[in-house]
Amino acid sequence: MATFKAKDGTQIYYKDGGAGKPVLFSHGWPLDGDMWDSQLNYLAERGFRAIAFDRRGFGRSDQPWTGYDYDTFASDINDLITTLDLQDVTLVGFSMGGGDVTRYINNYGSARVAGLALLGAVTPIFGKSDSFPQGVDQSVFDGIRDGLRKDRAQFISDFATPFYGINAGQTVSAGALTQTLNIALLASLKGTIDCVTAFGETDFRPDMTKIDVPTLVIHGSNDQIVPFETTGKLAAETIKNATLKVYDNAPHGFALTHQDQLNEDLLAFVKSL
């Protein structure tokens, strides 16, 4: 099992396949690197090196008690990039993972980065604040934390319905729903809860001004988790060199429901860099 050691000693799992220009994937909450299996195989079979890691506290990585903040997540990505000596890497972040890769560029620059893809991402800002009143109300994040503390398994099981848009006509197999729950329950409860605070309260608007590489923003028009109008649309308007693709009627979890379309769009993007 491949792991690397983060600066604080945390062992972080990653999978690495294929050869060619590297593409590094940062997963969403409350999943792990396995959410990217379709994309990893698709790109690796087409001449790219595809890498995905399990965020600290999730999947097969260590579960430290602390460190669930975006500066630490960015540091972990930097440690992985330097450990593997990646050059001209395309960073792909889904949902909260979009914050990881954006903070990486803010903190460490883009010297090793060829491009950026933000997929259903929480950037530039997700939660409501005095300076961003159109964001998701903080009571929503309070409810998520309370649900996790009370009955995490049932909360995640229920969360899959809006996540995949099952209540809006999307079809997801029973096996995929089982896998989603199994992946989520591998994670640290503490890390799962702390990440809700991280993505609900972190303001990436200053980070967005540091993005100086070609950027692909993809969002579902029917995202019930991370609303398009206040995240993906705003990100595409804020980032220089950004291209926006909106998947019609797609839910938050479009990496599964629209995997063929996403695979083709990612391949075209990385080929263009």
Written overview of the protein:
The protein is α/β, with parallel strands linked by helices and 273 residues long. It is built from 10 helices and 8 strands. The protein has helices at residues 37-44, 70-83, 96-108, 138-163, 174-186, 189-201, 205-208, 232-238, 254-257, 259-272, and strands at 3-5, 11-17, 21-26, 48-53, 89-94, 113-119, 215-220, 242-247. Strands 1-2-4-3-5-6-7-8 form an 8-stranded mixed sheet, sandwiched between helices. A hairpin with a 5-residue loop joins strand 1 (3-5) and strand 2. Helix 1 (37-44) crosses helix 10 and helix 4 packs antiparallel against helix 5 (174-186). The longest helix is centred in the middle third of the chain and has 26 residues, at 138-163. The protein is globular and about 45 Å long.
- Structural class by SSE content: alpha/beta
Strand percent estimate: 15-25%
Name of the CATH first level:
Alpha Beta
- Report the C-alpha radius of gyration, rounded: 17 Å
Low-confidence runs = none
Q: Fraction of residues in helices? A: 40-55%
The CATH architecture term is 3-Layer(aba) Sandwich
Largest sheet: 8 strands, mixed
Mean pLDDT: 98
Q: What name does CATH use for the topology?
A: Rossmann fold
Determine the CATH superfamily: Alpha/Beta hydrolase fold, catalytic domain
Number of domains: 1
How would you write the strand order of the largest sheet? 1-2-4-3-5-6-7-8
Shape assignment: globular
Distance between the termini: 31 Å
In oligomeric terms, what are we looking at? single chain
Query: What is the β-strand count?
Result: 8
Q: Give the ordered list of helices and strands.
A: EEEHEHEHEHHHHEHEHH
Please tally the helical runs, counting DSSP H or I stretches of 4 or more residues: 10
Keywords: Hydrolase
EC number: 3.1.1.2
Organism: Enterobacter cloacae
Domain AB hydrolase-1: 21-258
